[in-house]
């Protein structure tokens, strides 16, 4: 329906009779997806107390707020600093993505098992935690009341949606938009993800809702009203009958001076229960109306949307870094050196800090350094937001090239498949054939030039075309480079060990090594479904014939984790390991763990750690030295979720390796050997499964949390390093990359 004539969003009085409310609400939701609620029953004092709580929190120094930082999208709780959220889907044509100019604090249902709200110790419960919990409950009641009306309006039983939205799968978000010297966007245009959002705003204003003709309606602040809007989840559920409308926050035009004041708002995002399958409601797809969206699990949907939006690792490793959005004047309570930097067109459009020196040949985005070049993503011209530049693209190209090379080599070498692709290049004697060229590693600029040539070819380039673009001499160089790992590092997406991400987030006073500078972490598939997968694990008692879990197993677990960390580092994460080198990754994983490879048993901390100091051999050419990996293990073992994730990734690597062996079985006549490998891999998977279910046993969870195992490992490591010659990393080049 055309809303170009609409100049304000409808106001609905909730003290009317139900039938009238249903009618008005449905009209508002089907036309514009927004309404202003009055007489809603939420006490004015509670609203004021909640705003005061929010102010108290955001006025804390940044260093303190960062102690309560958002950890991950599955938990969806904690503080997110300015510049961490982006909404690239709805950019105006030709506009570059900018992060939102707001900081937020997210609070979930306080009694949810496995997730904890990050209550700031600096603020008394009476003025913060208790107030927010009361607000949470009050808003929950209001949303359930509204869901009843929505169900009635959609022709469903009144409690149909209530029953599916009463699981406290909600998220109370405090928002603070710091003062700014620039007019323009403070929060980019977006639709909300959930069912309904209940929003209250202070008197500064700036919220705008899009009309069908692309213009915007101002949502003026009014005392004591609540704005409600439809989110994508409800839009999908209702098959687009109810509209999730684009909205954004802009700095108001002027406020008597150059500086636009800070703004506070409070959003209560409501979602369907975690286990709800979101599929078109029966009353919304009948007759000749078909469902527009495929069914999806509610929790998965939200987590996925959050992953696309929130970057949990912006400049967080550096407390005092300038926020990525250039418009900030100051973050309240922050040091004055968080000041403005006026942007000109030649400021790097990736980090927004340095002067831009180069322009991406593909998207013409100015950037300052190789790092920024690697990190820049850009929406395509048609706004479809595919990652069209950088590593994804190059990776596809190089993979295409590699697979051609592979095929050829396989034929030449009589179908030998079970080999690392780097080994395949040994068939070509680079050093003797073309010594001069091969000896030097392909310069980065040269690689980029090559990439852009490849790009011109398009996705379906055939071998002849590739050969034309990549002359034989250059191919040798590229192969050599791949062999050396240099090109691989260029083509692989930056990967940062996810367990270290938590380290940067959490622990104050930890010595920060070079590795801990945060890079973009891998939003891995497995992490999205981590909790679902952990919950599905067989109970430990069932696997171990009713025996109680032995706490001594933790030493064997450490040996496995040591190997998992080394493998993931070496292969730049699970996604890459599985997609490109499942067999090699599987074999690294197994050989570097004495428990997996030799069924070894460790019975004390020092026994396993001494083993680790020498187990680097298992990671020949590996990604990090033993002391880094031992530190990795220390950070993993204190959380059953992190242990669970690491083991699940080990499990996935073994599964992928097994799949690869099976695939080869079809091609190569080596059935018996392959059958044995498959058996071994299956047995190893079982072993990992055993450790998985052990690590999620309630007693073990508590043990991991409460014992000082992390500290013991770290102090053992310090001591060992003092007493023994500090060992050099096995492969410093990988460390440098990290
Ligand atoms: O701050 C506001 O007024 C709007 C916030 C918003 O739209 C959101 O967080 O989804
Ligand atoms: Fe929103």
TrEMBL record:
<dbReference type="Pfam" id="PF14226">
    <property type="entry name" value="DIOX_N"/>
</dbReference>
<dbReference type="InterPro" id="IPR044861">
    <property type="entry name" value="IPNS-like_FE2OG_OXY"/>
</dbReference>
<dbReference type="Pfam" id="PF04438">
    <property type="entry name" value="zf-HIT"/>
</dbReference>
<dbReference type="InterPro" id="IPR007529">
    <property type="entry name" value="Znf_HIT"/>
</dbReference>
<dbReference type="InterPro" id="IPR026992">
    <property type="entry name" value="DIOX_N"/>
</dbReference>
<dbReference type="InterPro" id="IPR005123">
    <property type="entry name" value="Oxoglu/Fe-dep_dioxygenase_dom"/>
</dbReference>
<feature type="domain" description="HIT-type">
    <location>
        <begin position="348"/>
        <end position="389"/>
    </location>
</feature>
<dbReference type="Pfam" id="PF03171">
    <property type="entry name" value="2OG-FeII_Oxy"/>
</dbReference>
<protein>
    <submittedName>
        <fullName>2-oxyglutarate/Fe(II) oxygenase</fullName>
    </submittedName>
</protein>
<keyword id="KW-0863">Zinc-finger</keyword>
<keyword id="KW-0479">Metal-binding</keyword>
<dbReference type="InterPro" id="IPR039646">
    <property type="entry name" value="ZNHIT2"/>
</dbReference>
<feature type="domain" description="Fe2OG dioxygenase">
    <location>
        <begin position="168"/>
        <end position="272"/>
    </location>
</feature>
<keyword id="KW-0862">Zinc</keyword>
<dbReference type="GO" id="GO:0008270">
    <property type="term" value="F:zinc ion binding"/>
</dbReference>
